[in-house]
Amino acid sequence: MAVEDKNISYRIYLVAFVIFLMAIAIAVKLTNIQWVEGDYYRKLAKERTVKNFVIPANKGNIYSADGSLLATSIPNYEIRFDAVAPKSEVFEKNIKSLSDSLSLLLRKPKGSFHNEFRKARANKNRYYLVARDLSYTEYVKIKGFPLFKLGAYKGGIIVQQETVREHPIGKIAERTIGYERKTPLGIADGKGIEWAFRNYLNGKDGKVLKQKIAKGQWKPIRDVNEIDPQDGYDVISTIDVFIQDIAHHALLKQLTDYQADHGCVVVMETKTGQIKAISNLGKAADGSYYETTNYAVAESHEPGSTYKLVDLMALLEDKKVDTSTVFDSHGGIIKYSGKSVRDSHEGGYGKISLARGFEVSSNTVMVQAVYKNYKNNPAEFVNHINSYGLNKCLGLPIKGEGKPFVPQPSDKNWSNLSLPWMAFGYGVSITPLQTLTFYNAVANNGVMVKPQFVSEIKEWNKTIKKYNTEVLNQKICSQETILKLQAILENVVKKGTASKLYSKEFSMAGKTGTAQVNYSKNGGSEKYYASSFVGYFPADKPRYSCIVVVHKPSTANNNYYGADVAGPVFKRIAQKIFTDAPSTNVIKNINRKIQSQEIDYDTYYTKSQKQYLSIPNLKGMSGMDAVALLGNLGVKVKIIGVGKVKKQSIQPGENLSKKTIITLELS
After folding, report:
1. Of residues 567 and 614, which shows the higher confidence score?
2. Is the dihedral of CA 602, 606, 610, 611 positive or negative?
3. Using CA atoms, how far apart are residues 596 and 531, in angstroms rounded to an integer?
4. What is the pLDDT of residues 371-385, one digit of tens each?
5. 77 Ramachandran zone, left/alpha/beta (phi>0; psi -120 to 50)
6. Amino acid 585: pLDDT
7. Best CA proximity match to 243, nearest among 384, 66, 112, 72
8. pLDDT (tens digit per residue) in 175-189
9. pLDDT at residue 535 is higher than 90
10. Rounded to whole angstroms, what are the CA distances from 562 to 256, 361, 510, 543?
11. On the CB side of 98, how many CA atoms lie within 13 Å of its CA?
12. Exposure letters 414-439 (e unless 16+ CB within 10 A, then b)
């Protein structure tokens, strides 16, 4: 018995000793946590319960020159369902009515919703997608549906919101307005005005400190570290919606009629260089056309006959010849180093003056004039081209400007063909916008101005930055030469290659161009034509210059020349600007369909209110779109009802300010 009691005592002592060691270990660990690693664990606890949240800044809007809204930010909603969250009795009670409600709103079979919800429940899917790309109005309705109205924890509704960029007037000038996005690798990228002026548009995000509380919710902690977001500034572009609409549809019609591959049109204000319209349309697989590449800015190619104005300017400026100097077209064919230069008119033009040779776009005449006078010193001719700035980029803020190419006599690839080929627009490369800038300088009495896409940056009616006209060359040639060139360009329309465009009621001046593209690839099997027309109007007092380029028009009827394909677009734009100009500028919706609804963004601005915003016509617009649009304008909104706007308390056209409050009655 004594031995047994002794063994029990040993066991008790052993257990006590082990407990004592454990107590010491715990004490050491607690001491280590408290004093040695205390800072680390306190920091970890704080990071998991307290953290900074970003307060996104509101992105600025892009407006047209006449105050029309070109780009704005609108909230977009996605609804998902946590099928595990609702209790069984709640789920069974509401699932049928929820499916019925969603079916009516989203126009899908109610049986489909009912089955999918049950499948999600069975699979314990906690993130089932119900609908995406919803408007604010649709989101509000869904949030009030059976089951979902019980909230996230009892009803299982999960709402995700993101801000998307919309173009209220539709697809016109979409490529120039541009975008900003993240690539799949997370790299910031973009195009057009959105990207070029992102530092002004994006503003600066704010931050707020929040603490985690019950049920995974976060409560703001107000402290000195909180930073309010700074909203982005508004960008006022130079685009005029009225002119843009004309240019877009004139180009679209011609591309469709000639089944062309792609084309572009640009309208520039002569004195300022402001781009009033720019359209770039490419052909889709289904045969329709849409804004793809910004061809006017990015596509550098051989211009063909529109480049002959460079010849004429250099020759007259150097006084090598006069407009009356006679040249023999040699039956329409001349040869240089075994290569033929041909006139489009079979048999040539006989003996004609230099001016007449330009008017009828004779390749043989223009090439002879250049080669004869510059063959011994080609650098003299090329230096003129360089002085006009045609050998370098314009330095536009818009990303992706095409690089011009002008061969230099010092280049190792310079050959005996370089000079004569340059004379009729081959062996050189230039973008449509660079060509337009050169012609605009002639219209502007020799003053070359830089194309301008943005006129100012604004914070409401406060100007943050103004972009004035930038002169690239104060005088590209003498006034004597300018006057001769202007007269000849007007004659091209009156009695030259563009005589089909002539009208006694309306004066225009310009030059046609028909260039063969890709003629050197695969033995010429990929060759096609690029038809162009560039000029200005009215001819006597130029107000606008314009270029039209159409690539790969159908050659079925042999009507692929610049006068036939590009010229009519130019004429339609010129005539409609001055014959159909309205007393007030009205933005028309270009069949813009958003979220299966036709949205009419008609907004009125009087000409005296340029750069100042007024209340838009909201009738018929969904409540979400109306709230988002007015919110971007800084207007406070009161909503009555749900649905589309039936009445608005302030009529369209009335001025607005930061204190403006408008009541919308929805149906």
Report:
1. 567
2. negative
3. 38
4. 999 999 999 999 999
5. beta
6. 40
7. 66
8. 899 988 888 888 888
9. yes
10. 16, 11, 11, 22
11. 25
12. eeebbbbbbbbbbbbbbbbbbbbbbb
Specify the higher pLDDT residue, 624 or 156: 156
Arithmetic mean of pLDDT, 193-205: 91
Q: Which pTM does this prediction carry?
A: 0.76
261-279 burial, b at 16+ Cβ within 10 Å, e below that, comes to: bbbbbbbbbbbbbbbbbbb
Asked if 369 and 352 count as a contact pair (C-beta separation under 8 A), the reply is: no
**How are beta strands 262-269 and 544-551 bridged, if at all?**
antiparallel
Q: If you average pLDDT over residues 580-592, what whole number do you get?
A: 41
Sequence-distant (6+) residues with CB within 8 A of 580 are: 246
Judge contact between 207 and 222, C-beta under 8 A.
no
Which tens digits make up the pLDDT trace of 254-266?
999 999 999 999 9
Say if residues 306 and 534 touch (Cβ distance below 8 Å): yes
How many angstroms separate the Cα of 317 from the Cα of each of 115, 312, 536, 587? Answer: 81, 8, 22, 46
Q: Rounded to whole angstroms, how far apart are CA atoms 578 and 73?
A: 34
> Are 648 and 619 in contact, with CB atoms under 8 Å apart?
yes
Long-range contacts of 580-589 (CB under 8 A, 24+ apart): 580/246, 581/242, 582/242, 583/607, 585/66, 585/67, 585/68, 585/240, 585/241, 585/242, 586/242, 587/68, 587/69, 587/168, 587/169, 587/241, 588/169, 588/245, 589/169, 589/170
For 32-62, where are the alpha helices, taking DSSP H only?
38-49
- 3-class secondary structure per residue, 68-129: CEEEEEEEEEEEEECCCCCCHHHHHHHHHHHHHHHHHHHCCCHHHHHHHHHHHHHCCCCCEE
Integer CA distances (angstroms), 452 to 194, 233, 393, 449, in order: 15, 19, 14, 9
Token duo for residue 650: 């302030």
The secondary element (H helix, E strand) that includes residue 466 is strand 462-466
Evaluate whether 311 touches 366 at the Cβ level (below 8 Å): yes
Q: State phi, psi for 91 to the nearest 5 degrees.
A: -60, -50
The two tokens of residue 658 are 């930061």
Return the structure tokens found at 605. Answer: 């601005």
Percent over 70 (pLDDT), the chain: 84
Q: CA–CA separation, 228 vs 57, rounded Å?
A: 9
Angle at which helices 308-317 and 363-374 cross, to 10°: 40
Taking the C-alpha atoms of residue 231 and residue 202, their distance in angstroms, rounded to an integer, is 7
Q: Are 274 and 450 in contact (CB under 8 A)?
A: no
Give residue 251's Cα distance to chain centre: 18
Contact in structure between 330 and 346 (CB atoms under 8 Å): no
The DSSP-derived string for 311-370 is HHHHHHHTTS--TT-EEE-GGGEEEETTEEEE-SSTT---EEEHHHHHHTT-HHHHHHHH
Q: Give the CA angle between residues 366, 369, 371 to the nearest 5°.
A: 105
Give the full edge-to-edge strand order of the sheet including 50-55.
50-55, 206-212, 218-221
- 69 compared with 406, residue with greater pLDDT: 406
| Nearest C-alpha neighbor of 362 from the set 374, 348, 375 | 348
Q: What is the per-residue pLDDT across 33-42, written as a single tens digit (0 to 9) for each?
A: 677 666 776 6
Structure tokens, 325: 């100097």
